Amino acid sequence: MPNKPQITLMDTTLRDGEQTQGVSFAPSEKVSLAQALLGRLKVDRIEVASAGVSAGEQEAVRKINAWAKDKGYLERVEVLGFVDHNRSIDWIVGAGGKVINLLTKGSENHCRKQLRQTPEQHIENIHKTIDYAEQQGVNVNVYLEDWSNGYRDAPEYVYHLVESLKDRKIGHFMLPDTLGVMSPDEVTAAIGDMVTRFPALSFDFHPHNDYGLATANVMAAVDAGIHSIHCTVNCLGERAGNASLAEVAVVLRDKMGIDLNIAEEHIVDISQMVESFSGKFVACNAPILGSDVFTQTAGIHADGDKKANLYVTHLTPERFARKRTYALGKLAGKASLEQNLDEMGISLSDEDQKKVLAKVIQLGDSKQIITPEDLPFIIADVLGSNDAARVMLIDCATFSPLSGKSSVELTVSVDGKTLSEKGEGNGAYDAFARALDEILIDYPELTRPKLIDYQVHIPKGGKTNALTEASITWELATGRKMTTRGVHSNQVVAAMYATLKAINSNAGELVQ
Ligand SMILES: [Zn+2]
């Protein structure tokens, strides 16, 4: 059996990723990320800075290099530098570095119009910079900036540039699709050509994602014989960003059978680290990384999973130290509920499960977001309900200005009869209580017990959109204490439900 092809990954989150609009890593963040990328995620190489940026940047690179040297990783830490004869190399050496990624012009247009040099002048300057790097013991890789356009517009220029450098000691010739303009077919043809023309050289591909094709282009590049791929965590990078490390790693492994060194189980935790340091968050539905991508919302999927893992693919959450979850909402079925109950170690009778599911679907229908964490509240709410409720909430609009009284317009049904009343009070709940008392004045057996404690909770770990639970403790006329709960996304409405439960069960107690 032939060996699986080996592809190495170069992560440039700390250099190209930092070119994302509004992103600037603090020196200590750069050091932590470099350690996480090489030490935990096992990326093959990292590009950590542009030479010459600032003293703070150089200090961060110095710390990364000191740590990397200690771990034996020094030759895997790279810094972007320029054809400036000695300045970039001096900067890198000053930071204890060992590798320059030398930015040369990969398109004749850039060479003539931006540098205002002939190709021969540019090539001569590149050689001088490489000479100096060699004297200083710095390894050289070469970027062919804007190679994708340069190759399309004037391939002879690109051939000539590589030809003139091919006998130098250059580790990687790095081919950027700087503006993210290539399609997979174009990548296959262009990289195939480069690799065939210069079989002794090692080529890297540096894709950008302007057309959303970065990952597909990586597949094409690997097919064409590329040796190494550049990517960033969370797709960070200028405009639409670079190729996503998570997607590249998983696609190369699963779809192309490539051997990689990446430790997949750290992809998500390092993505979260980059999110918090960069302030740029991945979309909920971003492949592998998004918060929702291992959540089944449809009851039928949960049912299939419970019976025989029918909806499980090779892309399992466990690979990334994540868990599959089953959303609760209007599409949830019995199986989604059962999966969640199993997870929490709760067992309910069929009858109670039906009641809980009906409540979940009812809440989901009213566009409330329900998470598994809300489930204990819903269970407590439903199982504590009195089926023979005499007073039921139909509608309630509340208005609470910052200063002055709150007001409500309340509609309830009492024994099936719809009754409305307005109320004012010291806060929305007080206004509700007064309106309700007014409505119930003709029903002496339906009285509101004395409120002695009132607490509002959201589920542990819940966010601002979590359901709230109002838990109210009452003292009945008999002196007995009773606690009722109400659940709703609006905490005042949750308290209304808790209050009506108290009135309904108090009435039941009086009748008994
Ligand atoms: Zn780039």
TrEMBL record:
One protein family per Pfam: HMGL-like
InterPro entries: 2-IPM_HCS-like (IPR050073), 2-isopropylmalate_synth_dimer (IPR013709), AIPM/Hcit_synth_CS (IPR002034), Aldolase_TIM (IPR013785), LeuA/HCS_post-cat (IPR054691), LeuA_allosteric_dom_sf (IPR036230), PYR_CT (IPR000891)
GO MF term list: 2-isopropylmalate synthase activity
Residue stretches making up the Pyruvate carboxyltransferase domain: 7-268
Stretches of the chain forming a coiled coil according to its record: none
Alphabetical keyword list: Amino-acid biosynthesis, Branched-chain amino acid biosynthesis, Leucine biosynthesis, Manganese, Transferase
Similarity field: Belongs to the alpha-IPM synthase/homocitrate synthase family.
Protein name: D-citramalate synthase
Gene3D superfamilies reported in the protein's UniProt record: 3.30.160.340, 3.30.160.740, Aldolase class I
Primary role: Catalyzes the condensation of the acetyl group of acetyl-CoA with 3-methyl-2-oxobutanoate (2-ketoisovalerate) to form 3-carboxy-3-hydroxy-4-methylpentanoate (2-isopropylmalate).
GO BP term, example: L-leucine biosynthetic process
Taxonomic source organism: Arenicella xantha
